[in-house]
Design goal:
CATH architecture: 3-Layer(aba) Sandwich
CATH class: Alpha Beta
Helix content: 40-55%
Radius of gyration: 17 Å
Structural class: alpha/beta
CATH superfamily: Vaccinia Virus protein VP39
Order of helices and strands: HHHEHEHEEHEHHHEE
């Protein structure tokens, strides 16, 4: 994950400004994630996995202003942007670490992630879903706003064409657009949506579904049924 840390350290300062020109229908994408982030508590304990600059965390705190949220990310420079964003917020905690193996802590009422887990190798993704399940409180929810390959090479190619057309239509100049595609081609390790859903079921989640899909941009939600034990990771 060291190469991923370096890549996101390098783009931290301008990351948020580019998002709307990099992700098609960005507001609907994040809006679906926030909508799916349901909690039984008005003051939930929340973990943002691969939190980056804290964009998703900020939206979740608008929904749950009494909540406590932990931002976990491998890039200290991305978290530095998040620290500035949440300056003065006493209910926000920052942790630097590689969430593919670092202890997650918990228990949490809600765990979320946006545009991060697709950077992991398949085995690490699979294990992470199980680790997330283990630190969710009964009734807790895991929301993942991320990327997925098409179910066949044909659709994977079509989705890539759609994304390239979107990048070319935006205001980013050619060098920036080319750098975005380079990072996509070197850092992204997308998995089929069907495989990701099966991993969530295997992890133990009782309710699993897709609440948003725009080609390869997807939002999945998985709920932990009441009665399952919690395994705190210290």
């Amino acid at each position: 994950m060291e190469h991923i840390r370096k890549a996101f350290d390098a783009v931290a300062a301008g990351y948020d400004a580019q998002r709307e020109y990099v992700i098609p229908d960005l507001r609907q994408f994040y809006g679906a994630a926030v909508w799916a982030a349901e909690s039984l508590s008005a003051s939930p304990a929340i973990l943002d996995v691969g939190a980056g600059t804290g964009l998703l965390s900020a939206l979740l705190l608008l929904k749950y202003p009494a909540g406590t949220i932990t931002l976990l990310d491998i890039s200290e420079k991305m978290l530095a942007v998040a620290r500035e964003r949440f300056s003065g917020c006493k209910n926000v905690v920052f942790r630097t670490g590689d969430y593919s193996w670092v202890n997650l802590g918990g228990p949490y009422d809600l765990i979320c992630s946006a545009l991060s887990i697709h950077h992991l190798d398949p085995d690490d993704k699979h294990r992470l879903f199980g680790r997330i399940f283990s630190v969710l409180a009964p009734g807790g929810v895991f929301v993942n706003a991320d990327q997925a390959d098409g179910e066949t090479p044909y659709f994977t190619g079509k989705y890539r064409e759609y994304w390239d057309d979107f990048l070319h239509s935006g205001p980013l100049d050619t060098p920036e657009s080319a750098e975005i595609r380079r990072r996509r081609d070197t850092l992204d390790k997308n998995e089929k949506l069907s495989v990701q859903l099966s991993w969530l079921h295997e992890a133990g989640f009782s309710d699993v579904d897709v609440v948003y899909k725009n080609r390869n941009f997807i939002v999945t939600v998985a709920r932990k049924e009441h009665g399952f034990p919690i395994c705190r990771q210290d």
